[in-house]
Amino acid sequence: MSIDVSQFHQVFFEESFEGLDAMEMGLLGMQEGAADSDDSETINTIFRAAHSIKGGAGTFGFNQVSAFTHGLETLLDQMRNGERDVSQQAINSLLRAVDVLREMLTAVQQGVAIDEDSATAVSLEIEALLQSGTPAMADLETTEPAPTQAAGWQIHFKPHPHLLQTGNDPVRMLQELAGLGDLSVTLDNSALPAFSDLEPEDCYLAWTLTLRGDITREQINEIFEWVEGDCDLSISPLEPEQSAEVETEEPRTEDITEPPAPEAVINPAAEPKKALSETAMSSIRVGIDKVDSLINLVGELVITQSMLSQLGENFEVSRMQQLIDGLEQLERNTRELQEGIMRIRMLPISFAFNRFPRLVHDLSAKMGKQVELKLSGEQTELDKTVMEKIGDPLVHLVRNSLDHGLETPETRLANGKSETGLLHLNAYHQGGTIVIEISDDGAGLNEEKILSKAIERGLVASDDNLAPDKIHELIFMPGFSTADVVSDVSGRGVGMDVVRKNIHSLGGSVEVSSRAGAGSTFTIRLPLTLAIMDGQTIQVGDQRYIIPLISIIESVEIKPGTVKHVTGKGEVYSLRDEYLPIIRLYELFNLTPRSEKLEDGLLVVVEFEDRKVGLLVDELLAQQQVVIKSLESNYRKVTGMAGATILGDGTVALILDISGLLALYRNPSLVRTLKTIRAA
Description:
Elements (H helix, E strand, L loop, with lengths): L8 H21 L10 H20 L3 H18 L7 H23 L5 H17 L4 H5 L7 E11 L10 H9 L3 E7 L17 E11 H8 L6 E7 L2 H9 L22 H9 L8 H26 L6 H25 L1 E3 L1 H4 L2 H12 L2 E7 L4 E3 H22 L3 H6 L5 E11 L2 E8 L6 H10 L11 H6 L22 H10 L3 E7 L3 E9 L4 E9 L2 E6 L3 E6 L5 E4 L3 E6 L2 E7 H4 L13 E7 L2 E7 L1 E9 L3 H4 L6 E6 L5 E5 L1 H9 L1 H12 L1
Parallel strand pairs: 6-8, 13-22, 17-19
Antiparallel strand pairs: 1-3, 1-4, 2-3, 5-7, 8-9, 9-11, 10-11, 12-13, 12-20, 14-18, 15-16, 16-17, 18-19, 21-22
Helix pairs in contact: 1-2, 1-4, 2-3, 3-4, 3-5, 4-5, 11-12, 14-15, 15-19, 22-23
């Protein structure tokens, strides 16, 4: 009988990726120069993360990962013991090793083949560093051996019976010891019971080990640190005579052989790996305080349910107030439970921000720029799904600031600035949204160049007198780019429009503000969650729809004489010196209204990307929180609709997408398609 450790795979991968993030942050923090006393704790943190990944990979049989990690662990061990200075070359090599290790773990998790070429290249790079050596200055001043180093070690290792149940394998520990030096093993099986009394998950064996070579006690301790408290262990240095005697003794044991555990990846179609890939799922860590809060809320809900159930069995009209009180309590319990569950899905935005120190480090070096990255509001929370989807737009905006915004050191000095540019990522809550700002102190947007490119491409007329903010908005036009040279960073005209599109798909918005010579700021506003939103229910004909409350500015009654007809734009409503296009929703959705007279309806003024329109509706109903259901996954994507929800009376209401409605308004062919769907 064997222990199934596959259930621990997901935890291992989560902890390993977190460890890699910690290693990367630590290495980037040390990149400025050689090792000093302030770096010692950082190096220890990086070493512990690498050691944990190696140990976990070995436990689960991911031997390629374990073997690769061994080299960088050795390099880190020399750094933390003061045997090697922390050079920029070593840091860069370790950063590349972190990248490869992340790729290897991802491949193992997904059940695909590991890229052995990249792993081999970085392994050779690490090995070359170990062979060439950059000894610490202290090593040049003395030849005395380290106080914890001996010619050999005598080790007595007796696992406790339950050790196997912790997921640790004593044989793998012996293999790691054999990798340090010359190992002789004596097996003690005196505690082995009769066959009928054997417990298959208990450990009965013990070992006496003689390990010879230039090995420190710390290296041995690291191998056994996973089983501290789960074994009896003694480690003592060999005397020189004892070491010599051991070499002449007859061998008493067989060589340690590789157990039959499979390699992490044999081929992409390997059945165990496919199973791993299929069972791997998105997960989230939840603080025990949040779990306790949910348990308490469920307890309150059970009490309320019990009270209402008892009231229903013996209901009398005289107890009507008790029923009303009970229903109000049920509403409070449900709302608190909903909020508690939503809090579980909330994660600090640091999970998204953590990728940027490395990105800025690599790109700034590539472009010959000096950049200081400042992160603020890292504990600001938002929904896990939003977090996962906002990553790519943020990456593009950061790359854009590095490439187009921040200048080279020479240019900055010539303009009276410091050589080092500042890139600032900030996040904070505002109402029911999260605001993310990406700002730099670079040159700002070149309005003249943007306008020239826009005229060249026919996006605006040469005689148009655009305000600065309207010129800035041009960078979000499809295919727009002011880059003179196409590079792998930017200049292909694919990016800013996609950024805006992706942010809009999350129900958010993105704006840019800029000042020549002072820098630019991109401001993203996103809903805290995609699952629930505040909406305004409206009536159009015999149908009800939901408008996201965040899009509504106001609602007005249409007075006679306030509506005009403009050639090419149709009906427009005059509101405080603004002319708003009117969209008659009943025409758009092919419905029969209560009245076709504008004065009999209401105009709901909505805003999208600084553009306002008026939606003509028959009636405003209640404001309420609604649970968003996807149309695309249950039916198909429908322009103008963000999703659907089920109302309190069981009917289905469609949720309007303001950007999609504007597209319908501007494109009559889409309206015909929508009417066809409606008729069907």
